[in-house]
Amino acid sequence: MIETSILKITEKRIKKEKPAFAAKIIKEGGVVSFPTDTIYALSTNALLPEAVCKIYSLKRRCLSEPLPIFIWRKEELKNYVREIPKVAENLIEKYWPGPLTIVFYKKEEIFPEILTAGEEKIAIRIPNTPIGLLILEVAKIPITGTSANISGGKSPIKAMDVIQTFYEKIELIIDGGATQYKKESTIIDVTTKIPEILRLGVVGEEEIKKVVGKVKVNPKKEIGLKFSSEIYIVPYENIKNFGKLIKEYLKKDKKVLILKSEENQESFKNVEEIVYGTHKNPETFAINIFPILKKSTDFDYIIIEGVKEEGIGISINSFFRKVGKFLK
Fold first, then answer.
1. Whole-prediction pTM value?
2. CA distance 143 to 92
3. How many other CB atoms sit within 10 Å of the CB of residue 60?
4. 261: helix, strand or coil
5. For the domain 5-217, what is the CATH superfamily, name and number?
6. Please, which residues bridge with residue 278 across strands?
7. What is the pLDDT at residue 179?
8. How far apart are CA 316 and CA 62, in angstroms?
9. For 145-175, how does the pLDDT look when each residue is reduced to its tens digit (9 = 90+)?
10. Of 144, 171, 160, 7, nearest to 65 (Cα)?
């Protein structure tokens, strides 16, 4: 249980109530919720993998769903993305700060793989509220910009929505009243030949067309890593039968990778084994899984030791269900 502070703030008081307290919590890997122009955000340090794990765990969000980030100002963008296409420049000029999230190709080795679900892309926005901009200005780091709700839940448009869900689970909730738009930002991917709207929100399709011309609307677009290997997961509750469950996959003519915990003492011949975390700190599984899987492209089978269905384990197992099959 965490002691949650609730700070009620008005626009007139924002500059007097310097947001250093919130920025300090975020920089140190704590979690803060504050109002943006669209909905209340759930924010932490986007550069710390352990902090990012907290967001997935709090939201019970599948690890295959990347987290968007907030940055402080337009000039910061070049530090985090490979290129800024002309179409993006036009959108930024009109909508930043504001209710438009733009997907770019990310620069390498800046963000933890868990933040982007192992993807080469990252979704970025500048929120248009004084408190959000001040927190970002003081923190001077990119922060997570996801909604302050359980994944799939109702959009949090007032502080009470956040309090009801995350009181005693996060460090700070800033009550700035109801949000301006009361719905999510629109998300557009500018890495494609024709820009693709991945989520319709505040900014409508016709508005975007006026700025960039032709666009596609593709809200059901499949995102996430693709795997050539067959992936199997041994459920946490059946780990004692690990060897028996995977026996039929240990064939000499097949290349097999086994991902197991520090606690798993079983060893197998003619396969590659990697310890990818410990059950004493299940966040290690979440942090390590994407770097390992991205490099493991030359196997017939990848067999993974599952994790307990609680905390970050809910997010991990949700990801496992999408990419593989649980053994019984």
1. 0.96
2. 19
3. 15
4. strand
5. DHBP synthase (3.90.870.10)
6. 281
7. 97
8. 7
9. 999 999 999 999 999 999 999 999 999 999 9
10. 144
